Amino acid sequence: MEFFKEFGKIRYEGRNAKTPFAFRFYNPDEKIAGKTMREQLRFAMAYWHTMCAEGTDMFGVGTIDKSFDSANPMEIAKNKAYAAFELMEKLDIDYFCFHDRDIAPEGRTLAESNERLDEITELIGALMRKSGKKLLWGTANCFGNKRYMHGAGTAPNADVFAFAAAQIKKTIEITVKLGGEGYVFWGGREGYETLLNTDMALEQDNMARLMRMAVDYARSIGFKGDFYIEPKPKEPTKHQYDFDTATVLAFLRKYGLQNDFKMNIEANHATLAGHTFQHELRVARENGVFGSIDANQGDMLLGWDTDQYPTNVYETALCMYEVLKAGGFTHGGLNFDAKTRRGSNTPEDIALSFIAGMDAFALGLRIADKMISDGRIDDFVQERYSSYNSGIGKRIVDGDISIHELEKYALFLGDVTTNKSGRQEYLENIINEIMFGGKL
Ligand code: XLS
Ligand code: NI
Ligand code: NI
Q: What pLDDT sits at residue 437?
């Protein structure tokens, strides 16, 4: 049975393609920076947005039909699985990501929910073997059900903590069963609304306990992939503990978890934290915890997680610059944690949105590769810090000078009256030249 009859297989047709149902810049088998674009970009489909999100918002019902020709919840779940693999095939996407509750509806009891997961993962496993599609990462939805109203790992109620632990255990099992390359913690309600009712210290200690148990269990059943924490400062809770990469790093180091986790950086979460996407990627890279990416974009004028498909090429270029500088993805990839706008409610919109996102990242990769091979930006940065390569600077970097000697040196200088220009505008213009110089 075909679910997306409105479009066929999307192929690379180059910039002069005649149809909107074609890639103009994503040429999966073309090599860029030593690997094929497919290998560099490792695109993934987010099951929740693509297969489940119906366009509901606080003011209105869904506008997008995701019932997949059935009214029975388990049958819908199975049809969604078939439809998901059809879509990945048509869009040439190699990976997918899910929450446990995206792939199978929650049952009346935990045992029933787990049985449903067993049943559906049999089907998904078979579809994976047939198609060669792979699971980038799995995660447990520990925020949607009302039992998690005060959090899951950080809940004040120990029964809720136990329930979350059991749910995460099961999700790790199905992730391992399906050969998942990663496991994500996103702390949707792991935060607080008011400190007046909150024991912050206990909540964070408990979260760390849960993560430690999850890692130890996963390793004991043979999970070889990466664990990720996905930082986000707010929404749904007012303040989330995993605020941004720097905050998560401090948490991991406090609890001795720094060797077990990397970051899953989401563009829209970075901007909500008051950072650029590139900033979050840079902090992760410089601290050895760059892992995976939730590819989307927010709206500059809105203060929430709009999860739009990424189309801003300036942003994708700076993102891919960081990815290439990190040596590329290992277990991670670019997961489109993005949904079509509520007004873009046809099946065609799903294809067109993925095409827009994939082409934007293909352009980003091409530009990032040129930024690096062009060399002017990297050379500029190197030159900017060259005073640390010799003399007093080298002694500072080598830890080979005392504050007394520095004082003596500064007294001898008397003052510092020359500083080189940072040349920001010149550097920004280089990127524009790389992006548009040869084409317009
Ligand atoms: C929500 C998060 C979520 C995670 C997975 O804002 O981005 O979708 O990626 O739980
Ligand atoms: Ni996300
Ligand atoms: Ni998000």
A: 87
